[in-house]
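Issue: ligand-bound run for adenosine monophosphate - logging full I/O for the record.

Environment: standard queue, default settings, no custom constraints.

Inputs:
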Amino acid sequence: MRIFHRAEDLKAYRSTLTKQNRSMGFVPTMGALHEAHLALAQRAMAENDVAVVSIFINPTQFNNAEDLEKYPRRFEEDRLALEQAGVEVIFYPEVEEIYGQEVQPEPIDLRGLDEGMEGRHRPGHFPGVATVIKRFFEIIAPDRAYFGQKDYQQLRVIEHMTKALGFDTVIVGCPTQRLANGLAMSSRNYRLSTEGIAKAAIIYQQISWAAQHCQQYRPAELKEAIEQAFAQSDLQLEYVEIADPESMQPLQDFDQARHARIFMAAFCEGVRLIDNDKLF
Ligand code: AMP
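Outputs:
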């Protein structure tokens, strides 16, 4: 297994692969890996000659200093898990390697995909995400890059950025991996107690309820019922939104919609959790 800390070294390695006509799959992560990350890595390995997994806690996508500080960090465990999974390459750069002295997002037009939901509640989050992925693509020039649908808005933002900036990389969206109780796997789950993990099951329960009842109720009615369910729970709902998965704009009505998706963010034991799923 190779571990690269420097962009230049990884770039040189990438050039060698290109000369040998070998493809590269890329899985960007912020570490504290779990099975969902490993599923992305497995897919990257299966569909490419070489898979590279980056571990980089991207400071520009955090709008909250405490959230950044408390983000779990466990490189040694991550390295071992990737090695056992058979991943060939890890990219583990310092912040300076990616940003130099200017730790700031670049202005990238995200066509309003970044306005609602996560973008509204985490100002600056998506410009930070788009910037770091752009820089990684410039270094790695991956043939394919793998992203989870758990962060659906992020996936849409990256798809747009990739096209708009003319990268050749194919963006592969992968299904959300869940625990047995339905809770979406997340590095943030490491910060929850066993009780918290059990209580947080309400998030996916409510998403599933909405999927089963979207023929009967309007979006506003579904959202209100979900707000009430959370008001009686131990979690604090930050938002629930129903949106068109293409434009990411909120849907007032299902009548004209070809597709609809539900999105939520909620706090459990002070930890911010997000999830989403297809309604139809
Ligand atoms: P993160 O380390 O949280 O930035 O996530 C790295 C990648 O893993 C992103 O593309 C995420 O969408 C994806 N990911 C994280 N959790 C899940 C999950 N439960 N199911 C599928 N993909 C996930």
